[in-house]
């Protein structure tokens, strides 16, 4: 009798341990971010994003959105901060993700930097330029060349990761590149900005950064995704409303520098290029809302059409509304 009771208790304990382990596993998530200075990077550096969600979050840094989508496709990453061009390419290939938060609009954080001898559009011909593969920069670089009436035969465009772009620039192998920080700061030391991302956007090729979540993870963890979106937004709100706390001597700038490299002053300067989109605007038709006619869905489709024209993808979907979901941002607003 005692033996049966002991085995019964032991079974309950083992079941409890396994249940706890399963619960712990269910509260793990891998989140991808990129190089550069963004307000929410502070929450990665100081551990607040993980602490405030109560989840075991593994943050992984990547050099481009294309790399992040490759990791998402392999099942290694569930959430990532990506640019609109790789986002459009991934959606066109039926990768099941949803855009849930806009991490940045077009501005000065990305730019086309060229050698001093390139003064105007006519000087672009015959030159060699670079951008990260299938990035928003790659998309905008190709768009600029098309806008200036240049074909692939008129210039040479190479797609290489940002660290390689900096090395190629220093060797003199390229005449310019469309980049973001820290590569942007490096190239500007010996070159000048031909066009910023914001200027290219006004000329008809808008881009944006977005937080994307896999369909499966978002469906199974709605509360976490909403909580995470709300926390990310707090950093952007702080940056907009309290700029002094993000200055060169600030703790925020020091934390970003510790995680991303560079000095606090350099990162404070890089943060000035942040184009924050207020959460109340994000849920409107101009951004995440509006279904097929919404700003994000439309930009994805327009970007995909351009990528197909450039033979970077093979097909464009009828609608990209299924790859955008404003409900998590809306839930944050409803809880305020």
Given the C-alpha coordinates, what overall shape results? Answer: globular
Radius of gyration: 22 Å
- Order the strands across the largest sheet as they lie in space: 2-1-3-10-4
Strand content: 15-25%
Number of DSSP helical runs? 16
Most strands sheet: 5 strands, mixed
Pattern of helices and strands = HEHHEHEHEEEHEHEHEHEHHHHHHH
Regions with pLDDT < 50 over 5+ consecutive residues?
A: 1-10, 12-26
Got a strand count?
10
What is the rounded distance between the termini?
A: 58 Å
Mean pLDDT: 91
How much helix, percentage-wise, in residues?
A: 40-55%
Structural class: alpha/beta
Report what the structure shows.
With 336 residues, this protein is α/β, with parallel strands linked by helices. Helices cover 48% and strands 17% of the residues. It contains 16 helices and ten strands. The strands form two sheets. Strands 2-1-3-10-4 form a five-stranded mixed sheet, with helices on both faces. It has a five-stranded mixed sheet with strand order 7-6-8-5-9, sandwiched between helices. Helix 11 packs across helix 16 (327-335). The radius of gyration is 22 Å and the shape is globular. The model is unreliable at 1-10 and 12-26 (pLDDT under 50).
Task: Please write out the topology.
Elements: H1 2-26, E1 28-34, H2 41-45, H3 48-53, E2 56-62, H4 65-73, E3 79-83, H5 84-92, E4 97-104, E5 110-114, E6 128-131, H6 136-147, E7 156-159, H7 162-171, E8 176-180, H8 183-188, E9 192-196, H9 197-202, E10 209-214, H10 215-220, H11 222-241, H12 251-260, H13 264-271, H14 279-282, H15 295-309, H16 327-335
Parallel strand pairs: 1-2, 1-3, 6-7, 6-8
Antiparallel strand pairs: 3-10, 4-10, 5-8, 5-9
Helix pairs in contact: 5-15, 11-16, 12-13
